[in-house]
Design goal:
This protein is of the alpha/beta class. Helix content is 45%, strand content 16%. The protein contains 20 helices and 19 strands. The protein has helices spanning 53-70, 110-118, 127-138, 196-200, 202-218, 224-227, 237-245, 249-273, 283-302, 305-309, 322-335, 348-360, 368-383, 395-408, 419-425, 445-454, 460-468, 485-497, 512-515, 527-549, and strands at 15-21, 25-32, 38-46, 78-85, 89-90, 95-96, 122-126, 147-150, 158-162, 165-167, 188-189, 192-193, 277-280, 312-315, 388-391, 438-440, 474-478, 500-505, 518-521. The strands form five sheets. The protein has a five-stranded mixed β-sheet, sandwiched between helices. The longest helix is centred in the middle third of the chain and has 25 residues, at 249-273. The radius of gyration is 26 Å and the shape is globular. The chain starts with 14 loop residues before the first strand and ends with a helix. 46% of the residues are buried.
Length: 551
């Protein structure tokens, strides 16, 4: 099914209805899509899967009409319908085949039925693929072209983005990675013992913990959860995580095993798909602290060095919204609608700093759009758990350090830590502030002097970019001429590694003009004049970011 041309946001507000169909419950969502996705309303109800397809269809269609009426909308305002549903299904023809959690839903031409009922185009997508689209467009996978999303919930599945396109496979079965066998024996999952789902899903972790508990009891050792009265059949991933987070070594060992198996699975994915980023949801979001160390040890041992070097493994970002967004973004993807809002223009606090810059320095109006573009790159970097690498020479080196100072601590705001973080850190947390991670490459004296003496002064910043840089990061090179060799070399390495590159220069731009994704080329003929304009520009960017990320 061919995607339509991109629908640009404007004064006319348009809507999409989303159907999230699950074995336990269904949801009907309403969202506006004229300037990014804005969820407006939601109706949920039990699926009652045992009662079959027809009663569920009737309830879904009625709920869609109800949500429109509730929000004083007519169907003429709706431009499309998206459906997120468990597989197997035929997304190209809009057919739900026979999902195991939906008995009786056999070969249902659901997209066609929706179009006949509502007279708008309808699109269907596997729920794991739909969630992958959400994280790719709105979450931790933004600005990547090669990404993998792993569910890691009750089951274990994947959605794959390759070269900027969702991979479905010949019959929509791409991404069923939970079925892959990791070991000859092990916990049961996805139809076989020792599968990835058997080791790494919520159900599999529970079975693994139950098995290990029985082994411990056979050896005469009673784990803490048994002492606390938890029955073997009640042992779950959540129970073991709670004990592990409270410092229980036996529980931590179970999650270490899971991390090792996860690392083994990820090594396979990294070698085959060469992704920029692997985004993992559910259990990984909640228990990353218990899994990452053993996971990374295995990846370092098993995966190809060059592939693992450029692959970031991060928790999903969209949280509880992901299910609601999945059905909406299914239609957005097929219709070519950009789900990212023009965010800054809607935030008065962010725009206050932006507009104030041009009130004080009207001569910067010629690069107004470039400054907003730089802000949006940094916004996406920090939203994706990335960091800023910044460098320059002389006065620009001081500017690099200055920028880090404004980002890593309170600028206009005090940025107090939230209650959960204060509990984790303890009383000393009261003396910490929220930070936007940034590294000045100019300040590492021992490394810099050694590298300049032993290797090449012109590559000193480039070496640090190579060492620190990850796909989700941004590099900011400051050079009044735009031709500082060590800065230009660092920008080239950053570009090769897939980082976004921002150049901050004088009006000509120099070599950085040809490398940068965004070039902030301020006016001024002398170095001093140019640097005087650099300061209010980066102060403004830091202030805008602070408004975005801190209350």
């Amino acid at each position: 099914m061919n995607r339509c041309k991109i629908i640009q946001g404007g004064t006319k507000i348009e809507y999409i209805i989303g159907f999230d169909i699950g074995g336990t419950k269904c949801a009907v969502n309403l969202a506006s899509v004229s300037n990014g996705i804005k969820l407006i309303d939601k109706i949920t109800f039990p699926t009652n899967a045992s009662k079959g397809y027809l009663q569920a269809q009737e309830r879904l269609f009625a709920s869609a009409w109800d949500i429109l009426k509730k929000n004083n909308l007519t169907i003429s305002k709706v431009i499309g319908i998206g459906v997120s549903c468990g597989g197997p299904l035929d997304s190209r023809n809009g057919i739900i085949l026979s999902p195991p959690n939906l008995p009786g839903w056999d070969n249902i031409p659901f997209a066609k039925l929706l179009t006949e009922e509502f007279n708008v185009p309808a699109f269907i997508q596997n729920d794991a693929n739909a969630c992958a689209l959400v994280e790719w467009k709105l979450g931790a996978g933004r600005d990547t072209n090669n990404m993998m999303f792993l569910t890691m919930g009750t089951g274990f599945g994947a959605g794959i983005i390759s070269e900027g396109v969702l991979v479905r496979g010949q019959n929509d079965m791409a991404g069923e990675v939970g079925h892959i066998r990791l070991e000859d024996d092990g916990p049961f999952g996805f139809g076989k013992n020792g599968s990835i789902e058997g080791f790494c899903s919520g159900a599999g972790i529970g079975r693994l913990a139950q098995s290990i508990t029985k082994q411990m009891l056979d050896m005469g050792k009673v784990p803490a959860w048994i002492e606390d009265g938890i029955k073997i059949e009640e042992i779950s991933a959540k129970v073991i995580a709670e004990y592990a987070n409270n410092g229980d070594d036996d529980a931590k060992k179970i999650y270490e095993i899971v991390g090792e198996k996860l690392g083994k699975a990820l090594s396979i994915f990294i070698d085959i798909l060469n992704p920029e980023k692997i985004v993992i949801g559910s259990i990984f979001v909640r228990s990353e602290n218990l899994l990452r160390a053993s996971m990374e040890r295995v990846i370092q041992r098993e995966a190809l060095m060059h592939s693992q070097r450029i692959c970031s493994i991060v928790p999903a970002q969209t949280g509880e919204r992901i299910g609601d967004l999945a059905s909406i973004i299914t239609a957005c993807y097929e219709m070519g609608i950009d789900p990212m809002p023009s965010h800054a223009e809607e935030d008065e606090k962010v725009m206050y700093h932006y507009n104030r810059l041009f009130e004080r320095y009207p001569e910067l109006m010629g690069i107004k759009d470039k400054i907003m573009d730089a802000y949006n790159i940094l916004l996406r970097t920090y939203s994706g758990h990335g960091k800023l690498l910044v460098c320059g020479n002389g006065g620009s080196a001081s500017d690099a350090e200055h920028i880090v100072g404004e980002l890593m601590k309170g600028f206009y705001k005090k940025r107090p830590l939230n209650e959960d973080m204060l509990k984790l850190i303890g009383q000393k947390g009261e003396f910490l502030q929220g930070a936007l991670p940034a590294i000045s490459l100019t300040g590492h004296t021992a490394f810099s002097t050694a590298f300049m003496n032993d290797v090449d002064p012109k590559m000193v910043f480039a070496q640090q970019v190579y060492g620190y840089g990850q796909k989700c990061d941004t590099f900011l090179g400051i050079s009044t001429s735009g031709n500082s060799t060590n800065v230009v070399n660092a920008a080239k390495v950053a570009k090769a590694l897939g980082l976004k590159v921002i150049g901050m220069t004088g009006s000509e731009g120099g070599e950085l003009a040809h490398i940068s994704d965004v070039l902030i080329n301020v006016p001024g003929q002398s170095t001093a004049d140019i640097q005087e304009y650099h300061l209010p520009v980066y102060h403004t960017l830091c202030a805008m970011l602070e408004e975005e990320f801190f209350e």
